[in-house]
Design a protein that fits this description.
5 domains; DNA Primase, Chain A; Dna Topoisomerase Vi A Subunit, Chain: A, domain 2; five-stranded antiparallel sheet; 25 helices; alpha+beta; DNA primase DNAg catalytic core, N-terminal domain; 16 strands
Length: about 575
């Protein structure tokens, strides 16, 4: 729910250059009056989305995605319409006169408040006398006060300091145990985290949901790292470390860097690579992949420089590649991970490494060589088949050809034989993936529905078409289409004019919003013309009369009064002549 004056929404839209806003997210090329780019709302490889500065709208001619500047920002950033209005206003430097109130029903508010209080307690501990050794340790690890503050790093101290504090705050033992902050042993309770440097873990919205505690004192008990257990608010599979900080920088940099450890992401961030997140393990869940997909940028994988990191790079990269995400890889030489690499080599060398990231396909070519003697015929044949299987997954035919040529030159294979083998693999994969099945007929829109869609679309764009509809048609039989027409006419009556881009803002709160966008998405021809409108009106009128004829025929069959039956037949004859 949002409270903002409609006139102010329209003013923001009129002052926002949709071409500039959209091009801040993706590249656009001018062709004539309009601009074109690759649509971010489907798996698009060629520019199919048109952006019209004159009309203040965008439209994809492949998937049908359409709307005004607010709709684009809302869908691209996966935020509400109200938030998109605020975001666009910020982008063009306008100050909102109205206040936007976004009401969201959040679950587990009590648990989140307890975790936030716990985080503040840990942060405060670090700034006391008890935190001196921990601060010295952090400084030795090149984490200064700014980094400590940015990442809300804290300290758990000995005894049951956290338990005692939260008990005073009237938090129940059951809640503390459920949140993984306290352990119960018989009838006694004690803190889970004792004498550890505490790194808070945030959910995708930036709320504290868990912790990683690291030992720093000599002879501290194992393990070196201790993580919060999974709770009602902390599900590792739904979280990506540092995502809430990184997402804005990702949109600016147009790429996402993924590291393996939390400390890697922190080190990258404080060295200027703010578009970095860390995995919460060595794999990805469907939920995490979906969040990465929403960012709609290429991914650079920079995991640990050991055998486990190598395997994880292959597994994670394969998962992302299956989701049509463009993946690149950086394997840092000599150092264990990005944290150590930056400490020893600095951000300049890291920037060079990122610039020289290799494609995931190139990475796989090297990965498949592991544990193979390529001087041996059997191992070489196995390697070539694995490589060809990867090449067939590459959508770009030019890249395919480059890789085939590379393999041909490197191992002195006939490129024609490689092409034949690749074609054979592609044929077999198609057989495996697409089993024979009965064809399901696609429901096509008939002339009547197409006519209605165009009439409504024309009405959204110009008042003269609203007048033509009222005088020559009057109404639609279908209650949904009739409701949409009424929405358009109500907007016109309210404002004394019709603006397509502003009307799209107006319908954000309409119960028919989904149906209105379905109409717009089904209109491929955007040419506005009175003659064409007349043709659609004639088509709809004709079909409406045909429907009336069928309805009257049913009534004739059931009518017992002879005079009424004659009148019905007479009306049918009149309608047939008109049709």
């Amino acid at each position: 729910m949002f409270h903002i004056d409609e006139a102010e929404i329209n003013q923001i839209r009129e002052n926002a250059d949709i071409v500039e806003i959209v091009s801040s997210y993706l590249p656009l090329t001018q062709k004539g009056k309009n601009y074109f780019g690759v649509c971010p709302f489907h798996n698009d490889h060629s520019p199919s989305m048109s952006v019209s500065r004159e009309k203040g709208i965008y439209k994809c001619f492949s998937c049908g995605a359409t709307g005004n500047v607010f709709k684009f920002v809302s869908d691209y950033e996966n935020i509400s319409f109200a938030e998109s209005v605020k975001r666009v206003a910020e982008k063009i430097g306008m100050t909102l006169k109205s206040t936007i109130e976004i009401k969201t029903e959040k679950k587990n508010q009590e648990e989140l408040k307890i975790m936030e209080l716990t985080s503040l307690f840990f942060q405060n501990n670090l700034q006391t006398a008890k935190g001196q050794k921990a601060k010295e340790y952090l400084k030795e690890r090149s984490l200064d006060d700014d980094a400590i503050k940015e990442f809300q790093i804290g300290l758990s101290i000995d005894k049951n300091a956290l338990y005692e504090l939260l008990k005073k705050k009237k938090v129940s033992e059951r809640m503390l145990v459920n949140l993984g902050l306290v352990n119960q042993q018989d009838l006694t309770y004690h803190d889970v985290f004792i004498n550890r440097i505490m790194f808070p873990i945030h959910n995708l919205n930036g709320e504290t949901v868990g912790f990683t505690g690291r030992i720093y004192l000599p002879n501290s008990p194992s393990p070196k790292y201790l993580n919060s257990k999974e709770t009602v608010i902390f599900k590792k599979g739904n979280i990506l470390f540092n995502y809430h900080r990184a997402k804005e920088s990702v949109r600016i940099e147009k790429k996402l860097i993924i590291t393996e450890g939390n400390m890697d992401a922190i080190r990258m961030y404080i060295n200027g690579f703010k578009n970095t997140i860390a995995l919460m393990g060595t794999s990805l869940t469907t939920a995490q992949i979906n969040e990465i997909k929403k960012l709609r940028v290429p991914v650079i994988l920079m995991l640990d420089n050991d055998s486990a990191g190598l395997i994880a790079t292959y597994q994670v990269g394969s998962l992302l590649e299956k989701e049509n995400i463009n993946v690149f890889v950086v394997r840092l030489s000599n150092e264990k991970d990005p944290d150590e690499y930056l400490i020893k080599n600095g951000p300049e060398k890291m920037a060079i490494s990122l610039k020289n990231a290799i494609s995931f396909l190139e990475f796989k070519l090297a990965y498949y060589k592991q544990n193979k003697n390529l001087q041996d015929g059997e191992d070489l044949a196995k390697y070539i088949k694995e490589v060809l299987k990867s090449i067939q997954e590459e959508p770009d035919p030019i890249k395919k050809e480059i890789m085939l040529k590379k393999i041909s030159d490197e191992y002195n294979f006939s490129i024609d034989i490689l092409r034949q083998e690749l074609a054979s693999i592609e044929t077999n994969i198609k057989k495996d993936i697409i089993p024979p099945k009965e064809e399901v007929p696609v429901k096509r829109k008939n002339k009547y529905e197409i006519g209605i869609y165009h009439i409504l679309y024309f009405m959204m764009n110009d008042a003269k078409y609203i007048k033509m509809y009222k005088s020559k048609l009057g109404f639609f039989d279908n209650p949904i289409y009739r409701g949409i027409a009424n929405e358009i006419m109500a907007y016109y009556e309210l404002h004394g004019k019709i603006s397509y881009a502003d009307f799209l803002s107006y319908v954000e709160t309409s119960k028919l919003k989904k149906e209105i966008y379905e109409v717009i998405e089904n209109v491929k021809d955007e040419e506005l013309n009175e003659t064409i409108m007349e043709e659609y009106l004639t088509t709809v009128k004709k079909v409406r009369k045909e429907h009336e004829i069928e309805d009257l025929k049913r009534k004739v069959k059931n009518e017992l009064d002879i005079n009424r039956k004659i009148a019905l037949v007479s009306r049918i004859q009149e309608l047939k002549k008109e049709v």
